[in-house]
Structure formats: structure tokens, C-alpha cells
Automatic annotation (TrEMBL):
Membrane topology: Multi-pass membrane protein
Ranges for domain ABC transmembrane type-1: 62-280
Species whose genome carries this gene: Brochothrix thermosphacta (Microbacterium thermosphactum)
GO cellular component: plasma membrane
Entry's transmembrane regions: 12-34, 66-87, 107-127, 133-152, 178-198, 266-288
UniProt GO MF annotations: phosphate transmembrane transporter activity
Keyword annotations of the record: Cell membrane, Membrane, Stress response, Transmembrane, Transmembrane helix, Transport
GO biological process: phosphate ion transmembrane transport
Official protein name in the record: Phosphate transport system permease protein PstA
Keyword hit for Disulfide bond: no
Localisation: Cell membrane
Entry keyword Cell membrane: yes
Family named by the database record: Belongs to the binding-protein-dependent transport system permease family. CysTW subfamily.
């Protein structure tokens, strides 16, 4: 067999493997959407869930998922950006830098259930915050930090060294060069990484079962008392998310229409994660064109 035939054979195998993976993924997504989309309605998206009777919705769970995601990004993005700037621009190649990189790698490989148990012991038990949005957001921050740090560091490293030298040649300090030259140039990659990580933590369940809880009280959006359990803005209230709701409905199975609720919730979760991935590409390309044209 000559080299061209070997190349074609190997390429064909790779195409077959990629096709099998894509077919499996499309099959799973299609199966979930076919079963779940017919269950979706306005009432399903806005009504509170029912504990024993049929006809409940996912309104509080849907809001809790986005609220937790927003708080998680507010905490994790500044920390990750600071760590990425340090690792890419200031850190020297010594044992401290190697230790930081090792910790980031170890943290990224931890199972989400371990992060959830750690959050349960520290935030729920030790600090006494009980099952709350704050406990869940901090647990998701631990889960999200290594991804964001690596993405942001690679985005900053991808900036050409000539731009660093140009900023310093113009009289800017090193910090000013980072803030006004490097970060804006790396912004498309940073935004893409943030949106992709948002999609990942949006569907997280194991870490939130032990931190945010499995209870979703009815929300009164007219109640701005942040200390009230019915106020949606209270970060100390329990907050069951979409992913946790799917697990709870399937594990308990108390409501008569548990299968329909589970299918509809799974479809909403899949659609949201797909939208996160599409937005990451669209916004990343738009910001890149905007930065290159200016």
C-alpha cells in the first residue's frame, strides 16, 4: 500500500469516527427535543412547579438558573481575568507559577460532585449560609475558575508581542499596556470563553444539589425586600435550578406528569446551552471584526 492510499485510508477512518460522534450527539439532542418541545408553553415557562398535582411549570427554576449564572460570572470573571493577566504577563517561570498552574489543572479535573460536597461543607455548614443562591454561586465559581483562567490566559498570549512592544514604546506602563492594548485585543477570545463557560455551568446539577438546594419557592417579582424568601433577588434563599429540577422530578416521581415535566425541562436546558454556543461564535466573530476594523 503506497503512501497516498495510507493517507486516504487514515483520513476515511477519522471522518467515520467524527461522523459517529456527530450522529450520537445529534441523536441525543434530537431525542430530547422531540420529546420535550411539545411540552413547552408559556404557562410551562412561567408557572411555578407543583409538588403533587399535574400541570406545574418551571418559572422559578428558569429564573434561578439565570440568576445563579449571572452571580457566578460576576464573581468568577474578575478573578479569572486577574489570574490570567498575572500568569501571562507578570509571572516568572518559577515554583510559584508552576504551583498556580498545577492548582488550576487539578481544580479543572475535579468532579462536580466533589465541588458540591466541598461547597456544602464550607459555605452551607461552616459559614452557616444554608442552601442558598450565594452558596451555589460560590460553588459554581470554583467549578468555573480553571476554565476561564485557561481561556483568558491563552487569549492574552495569542496577542502579538509587537503590540506589547508598541505600547511600551509609546510610554505606557506595563499595566497600562495590559489594560489598554492587550485586553481589548484579546477581548473576542475572552468573551467567547465566558459564554462557553456560562453554557457549561448553566447545566450543572451535582454541585448545586448540595449548595443551592432542591427547593424553589414561588417568586414575587414585586417584592424588593432582599431579606424575604419570596423575593427573587434574595441571595440567601434556596434556589432549585433547571438541571436540579430534572434530577428531582426523575428521582422522586411524585407528580403525575413527571415524565412530561422532565422532558420539557430537558428541552429548555438543551436549547439554552445550544444558544450559548451559537452566541459565543456570533459575538466572538462580531467583536473580532469590530476590533480589527477600528
Amino acid at each position: 500500500m503506497n503512501s497516498k492510499l495510507k493517507d486516504r485510508f487514515a483520513t476515511s477512518i477519522l471522518y467515520v469516527i467524527a461522523g459517529i460522534i456527530c450522529a450520537l450527539l445529534l441523536g441525543i439532542i434530537g431525542y430530547v427535543l422531540v420529546l420535550g418541545v411539545p411540552q413547552i408553553s408559556w404557562n410551562f415557562l412561567t408557572a411555578p412547579s407543583e409538588s403533587f398535582s399535574a400541570g406545574g411549570g418551571i418559572g422559578p427554576q428558569l429564573f434561578n438558573s439565570f440568576y445563579l449564572l449571572f452571580l457566578t460570572l460576576c464573581i468568577s470573571v474578575p478573578i479569572s481575568l486577574g489570574a490570567a493577566i498575572y500568569l501571562s504577563e507578570y509571572a516568572k517561570n518559577n515554583w510559584i507559577t508552576k504551583s498556580v498552574r498545577l492548582m488550576v489543572e487539578v481544580l479543572s479535573s475535579l468532579p462536580s460532585i466533589v465541588v458540591g460536597l466541598f461547597g456544602f461543607l464550607i459555605f452551607v455548614i461552616y459559614f452557616g449560609w444554608s442552601f442558598s443562591i450565594l452558596s451555589g454561586a460560590l460553588a459554581l465559581t470554583l467549578f468555573n475558575l480553571p476554565i476561564l483562567v485557561r481561556v483568558m490566559e491563552e487569549s492574552l498570549k495569542s496577542v502579538a508581542s509587537t503590540q506589547r512592544e508598541a505600547g511600551l514604546a509609546l510610554g505606557l506602563t506595563r499595566w497600562e499596556t495590559v489594560i489598554y492594548v492587550l485586553v481589548p485585543t484579546a477581548l473576542p477570545g475572552i468573551i467567547t470563553g465566558i459564554i462557553l463557560s456560562a453554557g457549561r455551568v448553566f447545566g450543572e446539577a451535582a454541585a448545586l444539589i448540595y449548595t443551592a438546594g432542591q427547593n424553589a419557592p414561588a417568586l414575587n417579582f414585586a417584592n424588593f425586600n432582599i431579606f424575604s424568601q419570596e423575593s427573587p433577588w434574595n441571595i440567601m434563599r434556596p434556589a432549585e435550578t433547571l438541571a436540579v429540577h430534572i434530577w428531582k422530578v426523575n428521582s422522586e416521581g411524585v407528580v403525575p406528569d413527571a415524565t412530561a415535566i422532565s422532558n420539557g425541562t430537558a428541552a429548555i436546558l438543551i436549547i439554552a446551552i445550544l444558544l450559548f454556543n451559537v452566541l459565543a461564535r456570533v459575538i466572538g466573530k462580531y467583536v473580532y471584526r469590530l476590533m480589527t476594523s477600528s
